[in-house]
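pinned: reference chain
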Amino acid sequence: MPAEKDVERELVLEQEYVTALYDRLDAMREEAARGRESPDREAAALWRAEAARLESVEDGLCFGRLDLRDGSRRYIGRLGLFQDGQDGTDEPLLLDWRAPAAQPFYTATMAEAHGVRRRRRIATRGRRVLALDDELLDPDAADTGALVGEAALMAALTADRTGRMGDIVTTLQAEQDRIVRDGYAGVLVVQGGPGTGKTAVALHRLAYLLYTRPQLRTRGVLVIGPSDVFLDYIGQVLPGLGERAVVTGTIARLRPDVEVSREDPAEVAEAKGQAEAAGRIADAVWARPRGEAVEAEFEQQTLRLEPDECREAVEWASGKGLPYRQARLAFQHRMVDLFARRLADRLESVVFTESGEALDGGSADGRLSAADLRALAAAGVVLGPDQEDGPRRLLDEDDVAELRKALLADAAVCAVLDEVWPSLTAEDVVAEVFGNPGRSWSAADIPLLDEAAAVLGETTPTFGHVVVDEAQELSAMAWRMVLRRCPAKSMTVVGDLAQTSDPAGATTWDSVLGPHVADRWRLAELTVNYRTPAEIMAAAGEVFAAQHPDLRPPQSVRSAGETPWRRQTTRAELVRVVVGLAKGHSGQLAIVAPEGYLASLRDALGLATTAIIDPVVVLTPVRAKGLEFDSVLIVDPAAILRAPLGRNDLYVAMTRATRRLGIVHCGPAPAEIRAVRTFRVP
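pinned: its structure tokens
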């Protein structure tokens, strides 16, 4: 054990250095504040972004130090800070954790030290250094100095939950760091069981890519999560890493114009999620144009195109490879061109014999008829006195172009063309194909509406990189929706096939990604469970094995010293029992129950609303995905198991706790949890 005076001395030295770092940060903030006042709007906007970046790293600015075998030191933090060197070059005061020189902080071991003698983690609160944690990686070094502290990782894992995910930049493990720094340009799939940190790894990888590929900031990045609750939970991670220019949303929020107001039965939602739905939508859209005879009234003249002419125009426009609306415009221009030339030919045919008789049935005195003159005037063609009667060419291509404009502006002509090739909306198409005349939309309808919009030709915002969390839940149609937003196919996909709840979700990664990216995807796996205690994983392992006998769950690295328990009650007493068990808990408690219990549980607990930061949170297994709590109380596991993928849902619910797990069941315990010991209350 180090002497107390050695610890105090080290704390004082580190405090002096950290204070100097904050002084440098403050100077940079002052510069950014001045820059925000620039009269150049573009420059001012850049300085505002820089000011926000500097503000976001206030907490935990510096969190580590590397002592190298050559005697040098490197301080590691949330961004890079520099000072002017004597030779005119910048000297690093603090290395950005994403810089290559900072990587040994996460990867160095006694077996492979990467030149590191000692790794120190620095714990701070505000601008004050609270504690130090040293690891000696070179025990043969002649001068190790004082070694202080305890395991930072374990301290982070056992800390109380706050309802917000914290970043793991100070405690990234080597397995995680390899994925964070993976520069693969295609789709990287991060497969990991509960507690492996896959969400945090994905967000840190995004921060790393923004550091190494700054062009992504201009192309945009998107993070897709399973629910608004989840997005609130992770909302502070990227800002805490100095990255704010990120768009977040759920699948439903990618279509903000659509309100989800109902829920489909499981079998209906599954059918809507199948890839075949895309073909049904496309077929319905392209069946609308019809090749039939068309007649239009224009300036008291009847213009007619025969069925074969109309069919040819439909086929010509459909064959150009354009979306429906753009092809519709091409069709309209083709038809109007045919109308214009038909009208021009009619006007040109007004010629006369030597006796002065009109050959085309025009006016008897050999002049252009009033209808002819009106049609020409509508097209902007003005004739001189010598042009109104005589066998000469009246219209050139410019005049035909003016005729086309006049025809396109004519309401009666456009109405006739609309009957042949009608205007459509995505809502029209989906309501027709999937039988939804009331226009009340479900979550499963969102990808269908997006598909129809794409076929019709609506513009979709795109991003340079997309992160998809809980990706196993996406249906084939949802994947089409996501990939339309990432033309470069640069993605970080995070999920666990053992936690799939949606019947239309993934069973293998290749089946959902292969149709879109072929072999441009790669699998990276996380195998160590840092969050869930071994006692809880042992209980959850029974559920896991029942559903996935050929797979192995991640291995826990710690024990909480508390055994999971279960208690039997009646359905009539269930809510009262749960409320009683919820009283007196420590830390944050999640009550995970089927949908039908939520309202009664919230009423009994006096919860007007449920926010993710509340001491007690009531939610379903599906909405609990990706979250973690100090304690979890599961309600009526038999009802959870009745869901289409109920074992997966129960596995999710059982693996949300970092300390304690309890289960309340009605009647005999389901087979999947019988090994959990019975809890008896006096």
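why pinned: The radius of gyration is 35 Å. Residues 4-35 form the longest helix (32 residues).
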